[in-house]
Fold:
Amino acid sequence: MESIAFHVAEDIKLPIKNKSAYRQWILDTAQAEQKSIDFINYIFCSDEYLKDINVKYLNHDYYTDIITFPYREDNVLQSDIYISVDRVAENANDYDVPFEDELRRVMIHGLLHLMGYDDHEDSDIAVIRAKEDFYIGVFPQ
Structure:
C-alpha cells in the first residue's frame, strides 16, 4: 500500500496547496528510481521543533531544514521526513528562489536520501543536486 501523507506540527500551516500533485510527483520519483513506497509521512514544523528533534535523536545542536528517519533499508521506502518551513523560507530568501521551489528541493532531497543518495563527498553532492534539479523540473504544473 502506498501512503504519502502530509502533516503539520505545532501551529504550522500546511505549506503545499495541491496534495495530489505532490503525492503523484513523489510516487513517480520513487518509480523512476526503481523503489516502491510503503509509507512516507512529511511533517512540516518550525525551526525550534526540528532543532529539538535534531538534538534529541541525532545529538546535533543546530538548525537544519530536514531530517529523514528511514525505517527500512531496501527498495521499499518507509519514513518520517521532518521539514522546517522556517528554514525553507530562509533558504529561499538566501538563494533568491520562490518558497515552493525550495520546498520541493528539500522534499525531494529527503526522498533521494531514502533511496540511498548521499551528500557527504563532492562527487555525491554533484549527483544528488543533479537528481534534485531533474525531479524538480518534472513536478506537474
